[in-house]
Design brief:
- Chain A: InterPro entries: TRM6.
- The complex is a heterodimer.
- Chain A is of the alpha/beta class.
- Chain A has 2 domains: 1-151, Vcp-like ATPase, Chain A, domain 2; 154-396, Rossmann fold (3-Layer(aba) Sandwich), CATH 3.40.50.
- Chain A contains 13 helices and 15 strands.
- In chain A, the strands form 3 sheets. Chain A has an 8-stranded mixed sheet with strand order 10-9-8-11-12-15-13-14, with helices on both faces.
- Chain B is an alpha/beta fold.
- Chain B has 3 domains: 15-71, Vcp-like ATPase, Chain A, domain 2; 76-237 and 334-343, Vaccinia Virus protein VP39 (Rossmann fold), CATH 3.40.50; 241-274 and 294-327, no CATH class.
- Chain B is built from 8 helices and 14 strands.
- Chain B has helices at residues 73-79, 89-98, 116-125, 138-150, 164-167, 185-188, 211-223, 249-282, and strands at 15-21, 24-29, 35-38, 41-44, 56-58, 65-69, 106-110, 130-135, 157-161, 177-180, 202-208, 227-245, 321-330, 337-343.
- In chain B, strand 8 (130-135), helix 4 and strand 9 (157-161) form a beta-alpha-beta unit.
- The mean pLDDT of chain B is 91.
- Classes of the chains: A alpha/beta, B alpha/beta.
- Chains A and B meet through strand 6, helix 5, helix 6, strand 12 and helix 13 of A and strand 5, strand 6, helix 2, helix 3 and helix 7 of B.
- Strand 13 of chain A pairs antiparallel with strand 12 (227-245) of chain B, so a sheet runs across the interface.
- The structure holds S-adenosylmethionine.
- Residues 84-87, 110-111, 113-117, 134-137, 140, 163-165, 181-183 of chain B line the site of S-adenosylmethionine (SAM).
């Protein structure tokens, strides 16, 4: 593979501050970077993703190791502990004005400035390795004008929404999304039924695992499906043939759309088309193509053999799951995400447990705890502790006609 | 039928996951004429062959039943023969997502161990991908290789009997995701670059139970130019839904009121009895009337809304029920640290 940055690609740029930015890179165009200035897109077109660049005051890019590597760390000494360190606001000898001069007049790069700032810190060598690293990180975040490129997939999308507006993805996290995909046994070539109220994040993640043969039916709650937001990030769900959107009404009640289904049975006869004006003919053909796609969805529905049902929505899940049980094939999974436990507890108690078409119900809560590891220290990042939301998982079963005793 | 075929109907020779308990699954290969004996009854394979996956199968001449399920990497993880510690689904699913493993991905894994994670990897990379997995314990290597082949991963997973710390990862190539579950991953990390995809991003995850291992791993990753190093821990708990009878304060007050009524009734009765006795003593013949009778004294029923003394089935609709959930302890039997890192592609010549 080794994907490269193609003309007009959308990328996510990660900055030393931990922020990110989604941009489009078009030949001959400048890419604006806020207080970093801007650079010519041509400088990175054709490059692989994943490189880190430093941008100078003229907008010229150089490849560097990482967002915060600065100078050769081996040249510093550190102390075992900080008993020699006196808390002195004057230990930093350089003033903000002097730093500005370095930037403006001497045209130093961010990297050179950080090195100078460290040099002029009188007590730097008295700090422990731990606090040296912290200090450098802080200065790097402040002065380094760097960014790293990355293509946009489900993980980047999740990061983007988490920073911008986590409610739009119902606070969904990577560990929980990953668990959903595994429990639903999403794999190349499968056929999945999806309810996505998380800005198409689940759709996007399932597509990444589908391969060219797989397909998914996307149930939506509006008049029309809205796949455009991802279009703006270069993820094209609209023309992806594997994505088959349909409204709940048309999915659950195809009997109300007989005319459309009949229209799909044979292409409009040529002689009839010949009599039409071009615009009318095109409209008829478009209507026919849509009808065929709808019929295709109804056929999938009627085969009752989806390879999993994945749900992440603010709709009430109990009624939703109940309505969709029949379409899932035996032994396949139903996986429902919710940031709160209560809707899933209700779903288990009132729908999945009492119904013998569903077995092995489980509510799971997965959470990732990041650790801080800098030289000499290793401990949890207290500030980053958080919940990861909840998943209800169960399997579809076919009960025997004579109900066996007991409940397991 | 292999794990990847998503079969609908059970056929002769299929590996079927028979569900015996809450998360108890027994892998059984279908052979007509054979019978599966469990403590929930006996099940002839012929009763299962030809049925759709997911069917409930009644026991032969008995009340019990089982469900017959199609194998998945997750069910396999719950039922496989443990030859080593294994990676469980909460970790496995996070690693696959974070390492961006997809159909067509080329992945290195060492050591194979019991092959738990290998199944999950093979499922996701599919027939267009490759997993090169290495194990230096001969018996374990052989056992995992046989299982993986039987499970339909023959063209996807390539198993090698090898010490990766001394002998590397031949013939892997074009790899962009690496998973190391070894006691000393830092000995295997330096040789990795030659197997990685040129000009692409590579991602690694090292799975280690001890902090000392993590520290040594991070040191080596840094020396070998890996960046975005982060160590995390995944915890996953199950929530159990419970029904509890609703017992309200109002009912407690009514009940205590009824205690009080009973007490005063008893006292009244006592007083009456005493009075009667007194009368008896005073004049034994002058009073005409019935002799004292215990049953004349009112008896007060205690208010008992919770069916005390009865055996009550949860959900009995004479009572009100509340639904609660309680968190179980971590569902994995052991936790490890996951250390992730990224290796940037080699930089191209810069245009000026
Ligand atoms: C904990 S187990 C791996 C479990 C596996 N991830 C799973 O999910 O089933 C570790 C395995 O690595 C193997 N191993 C240790 N050092 C090795 C080396 N240098 N080369 C190859 N395999 C090694 C061990 O024999 C053991 O089977």
């Amino acid at each position: 593979m080794g994907a490269i940055i193609k003309p007009d690609a959308h990328l996510i740029l990660y900055l030393p501050s931990g922020n990110h930015k989604i941009v489009k890179v078009s030949p001959g165009r400048k890419v604006p970077l806020g207080k970093f200035g801007s650079f010519d897109a041509d400088q990175i077109l054709g490059h692989p993703f994943g490189l880190t660049y430093e941008i100078d005051n003229q907008g010229c890019l150089t490849v560097v190791d990482s967002l915060d590597s600065v100078v050769d760390e081996a040249t510093w000494t550190d102390s075992e502990d900080n008993r020699m360190l006196v808390d002195d606001p004057d230990s930093q000898k350089m003033t903000m004005d002097e730093i500005e001069t370095l930037k403006k007049d001497k045209q130093l790069t961010g990297q050179e400035i950080v090195a100078k700032v460290i040099e002029s810190h009188s007590a730097f060598n008295k700090k422990t390795a731990f606090s040296q690293e912290k200090y450098i990180q802080r200065k790097a975040q402040k002065f380094l004008k760097r960014f790293r490129t990355q293509s946009i997939g489900s993980n980047e999308l999740m990061e983007y929404y988490n920073a911008k507006d986590p409610a739009r993805i119902m606070d969904l996290r990577m560990e929980t999304l990953g668990l959903m995909l595994s429990l639903a046994n999403v794999q190349p070539g499968g056929t999945y039924l999806i309810v996505d109220g998380v800005s198409s994040l689940v759709v996007c993640a399932v597509l990444e695992r589908l391969g060219p043969e797989g397909q998914l039916v996307l149930l939506h709650e509006n008049e029309m499906v809205n796949l455009e937001p991802l279009q703006l990030m270069g993820i094209d769900l609209v023309s992806d043939p594997r994505v088959k959107p349909v409204s709940f009404l048309k999915f659950l009640h195809p009997e109300e759309f007989r005319a459309e289904l009949e229209f799909a049975t044979a292409p409009p006869p040529q002689e009839q088309l010949d009599q039409l004006k071009t615009s009318q003919r095109n409209r008829t053909l478009r209507r026919y193509r849509k009808a065929v796609q709808y019929k295709n969805i109804v056929d999938l529905r009627n085969s009752h053999s989806f390879d999993a049902l994945l749900i992440a929505t603010t709709l009430q899940v109990s009624g939703l799951v109940q309505a969709l049980i029949p379409f899932v094939h035996g032994s396949r999974s139903i996986v429902v995400y919710h940031p709160c436990k209560e809707p899933l507890v209700d779903l288990e108690e009132n729908i999945t447990r009492p119904d013998n078409r569903l077995i092995a119900t489980q509510i799971l809560e997965s959470a990732v705890r990041p650790y801080q590891s800098v030289p000499g220290r290793f401990h949890p990042h207290m500030s980053l502790e958080r919940g990861g939301g909840y998943i209800l998982h169960c399997l579809r079963a076919y009960p025997t006609a004579v109900q066996a005793q007991g409940r397991r | 039928m292999g794990f990847l075929d998503l079969p609908n109907v059970i056929s002769e020779g299929d590996l079927v996951m028979v569900r015996l308990g809450k998360s108890q699954f027994k892998p059984v290969t279908m052979q007509s004429g054979e019978t599966l004996h469990t403590r929930y009854g006996s099940y002839p394979h012929n009763d299962m062959i030809g049925k759709p996956y997911g069917s409930q199968i009644p026991a032969m001449g008995d009340k019990g039943f089982v469900h017959v399920l199609a194998p998945t990497p997750e069910l396999w993880t719950l039922s496989l023969p443990h030859r080593t510690q294994i990676v469980y689904t909460p970790d496995a699913s996070y690693i696959v997502q974070r390492l961006e493993i997809r159909p067509g991905s080329k992945v290195i894994e060492a050591g194979t161990g019991s092959g738990s994670f290998t199944h999950a990897l093979g499922r996701t990379v599919g027939t267009s991908g490759d997993v090169w997995t290495f194990e230096f314990h001969e018996v374990r290597w052989e056992a995992a290789k046989v299982e993986l082949e039987q499970h339909g991963y023959k063209d996807i997973v390539h198993s090698f009997y090898r010490d990766v710390c001394s002998d590397g990862f031949q013939p892997a190539s074009g790899v962009h995701a690496v998973f190391l579950d070894l006691p000393k991953p830092w000995l295997a990390i330096p040789s990795l670059p030659q197997y990685l995809e040129l000009g692409g991003i590579s991602r690694i995850c090292c799975f280690s139970p001890c902090v000392e291992q993590v520290i040594e791993t991070i040191k080596t990753l840094k020396e070998c130019s890996w960046t975005q190093i982060e160590t995390v821990e995944v915890s996953c708990r199950e929530w159990i839904v419970r029904k509890e009878m609703r017992r309200t304060l109002e009912d407690v007050l009514k009940r205590q009121e009824s205690f009080r009524e009973r007490r005063s009734a008893i006292q009244q009765r006592k007083r009456k009895l005493e009075e009667l006795e007194k009368q008896d003593d005073d004049d034994d013949s002058s009073v005409v009337g019935s002799p004292p009778n215990k049953d004349d004294i009112p008896y007060v029923d205690l208010y008992n809304p919770w069916g005390k003394g009865e055996r009550i089935v949860k959900g009995d609709d004479r009572f009100q029920w509340d639904i609660f959930s309680a968190g179980e302890r971590d569902i994995k039997s052991h936790t490890s640290f996951l250390t992730f890192a990224v290796l940037a592609p080699a930089p191209p010549k810069m245009k000026t």
